[in-house]
Write a structure and sequence with these properties.
Length: 183
């Protein structure tokens, strides 16, 4: 695994040991960012199921001002800390060891708004619609924020109030869906 493009391009990232985390492959990560960017002019990113932190790190490498990296596993947090250190830009990252639900409550209390949200929950917990509704109802999104969801290809989305589905792209068993928040 590596950082694909931008300021930190080519730097290698460590994986989380064991099988509890499924890192986004470089191929999917590159495709995902080519769809939504590929580069940004500031803004905040939220990587809600960060795992290795690779998606949030990639977002900052490509121009986001800051990324909030959330994971509840101790092993993942240790790897995220090591991967963030590789960037030598630690101040751009906020690492939160907690559940996604608790993180959303804390971010709401701090009135932090996001321009980009990256959702890659465990495939067996396909809760993307629930998470989109929470992000909207908790007012955590900037107008026209993008939300990228990585799921398996079996997930179907109903119409979700406040969001437009911009597109879906399949990569083997993985599907990347891009939503735009319409306030």
């Amino acid at each position: 695994m590596r950082i694909i493009a931008g300021e930190f391009s080519g730097r290698h990232l460590k994986p989380v040991p064991g099988r509890k985390t499924r890192p986004t492959t470089d191929k999917v990560k590159e495709a995902l960012f080519n769809i939504i960017g590929p580069y940004f002019d500031g803004g905040r990113a939220l990587d809600l199921y960060a795992g290795t932190g690779g998606l949030g790190i990639e977002a900052v490498s490509r121009g986001m001002s800051a990324a909030y990296l959330v994971d509840r596993q101790y092993a993942a947090i240790k790897v995220i800390e090591e991967n963030v250190a590789v960037t030598k830009a630690e101040a751009a990252f906020h690492i939160m060891k907690m559940s996604a639900a608790r993180a959303l409550v804390e971010l709401k209390a701090k009135e932090i708004l996001f321009d980009l949200v990256l959702l890659d929950p465990p495939y067996q917990e396909q809760q993307i619609v629930k998470l989109l509704n929470k992000l909207r109802d908790m007012a955590l999104l900037q107008p026209e924020a993008l939300v990228v969801a990585e799921t398996d290809v079996t997930v179907l989305y109903p119409e979700i109030t406040g969001f437009t589905l911009l597109g879906q792209h399949q990569y083997g068993i993985t599907e990347v869906s891009v939503f735009k928040y319409i306030k």
